[in-house]
Design goal:
The protein contains 8 helices and 20 strands. With 317 residues, the protein is of the alpha/beta class. Helix 1 packs parallel to helix 6.
Length: 317
């Protein structure tokens, strides 16, 4: 393949994370002949149809857009084939059938936001922080018929700081991933790609986030609770039930700090002053700087405590 214009690329992705990678390809003059993204979905109070972030960018760049509801649909497969792609790139999309990923001459590669084989799955950025990792990265690999198991092309690592949130790490990996994708495409274009089979060791996994696995367990050690909350801040956010006198409600927690100190009170017990709110864990306290009580807006704890009273003996459950 002699030049960028000779390599016909179809890009597949949906959220903001994918937009940054697509934008980098366009700005570096790679020949993106088509973009596949999710169908428009109803959103907001008016339930008006909302386009994906990738679609909005692709429209702005006058790129050819496909929005299949079924990736095995014959008319979609025919339209995809008509684009005559030499290579397909997948970033934050969905699992592809073999009829799609095997179509181009050079195959289809995926960008995954972890150092594979660890953190295969839907939420690799979140789980790396939740599990207290100090490093992570991004991987490009050729797609095969399983999830995130294909042969690795390139990897690039980065550190996870003590106060990193999923929001800050998401943005860090988004830009790192954009560089990794263009390096991967260039290597494919130049015929210099070598791949590595993924190790067979049992990897750490990154399952989909649900209301069940994003609830805080105050019986765990302080550091684990701290990692859990920052690994879900700001999205989808860690949550807890609150028993405040006779009232039971829920709250989402965002910015917190931790304090490892001797204590004799039960995990989940709330301690407060006029400007501070702490919750006991098994070996210390989590101090909350930002939270959103159900029915109220997200606010700094100092502002919340001005108008919201926690009765003595209140607990987070």
């Amino acid at each position: 393949m002699s030049s960028k214009k000779d390599l016909r690329i179809v890009f597949m992705g949906t959220p903001d994370f994918a937009v940054t990678i697509l934008k980098k390809l366009v700005e570096e003059s790679f020949n993106v002949v088509g973009v596949v993204t999710a169908p428009d979905k109803p959103a907001g109070r008016g339930r008006k149809l909302k386009s994906s972030a990738v679609k909005m960018y692709a429209e702005n760049q006058n790129l050819h857009i496909l929005q299949p509801t079924n990736l095995k649909n014959e008319s979609f497969l025919q339209e995809l084939a008509s684009l005559q792609a030499d290579l397909q790139i997948v970033v934050a999309f969905r699992m592809l059938p073999k009829a799609v990923w095997s179509l181009p001459f050079y195959g289809t590669f995926n960008l995954h936001a972890s150092l594979l084989p660890d953190y295969r799955g839907a939420a690799p950025i979140h789980w790396a922080i939740i599990n207290g990792e100090t490093k992570t990265g991004a991987t490009t690999f050729f797609i095969d018929d399983k999830i995130d198991t294909g042969e690795i092309i390139l990897t690039k690592g980065t550190t996870i700081t003590e106060d990193e949130t999923v929001g800050s790490l998401h943005d860090k990996l988004m830009h790192l991933g954009a560089d990794l994708v263009t390096e991967t495409v260039t290597a494919i274009m130049n015929g210099s790609v070598t791949t590595t089979k993924q190790p067979s060791k049992a990897p750490k996994l990154a399952p989909k986030l649900t209301p069940e696995n994003t609830k805080i367990d105050w019986n765990r050690p302080t550091k684990q609770v701290y990692n859990f909350i920052r690994g879900l801040n700001p999205f989808p956010s860690a949550w807890t039930s609150i028993q405040n006198g006779e009232e039971e409600t829920t709250a989402k927690l965002f910015k917190v700090t931790m304090d490892l100190e001797d204590k004799t009170i039960a995990p989940g017990t709330i301690i407060q002053s006029k400007t501070k709110l702490g919750v006991a864990t098994s070996d210390g306290f989590i101090y909350i700087d930002e939270m959103k009580v159900a029915g109220k807006k997200k606010m700094a704890i100092r502002d919340l405590l001005n108008g919201y009273h926690f009765e003595e003996g209140s607990k987070m459950l």
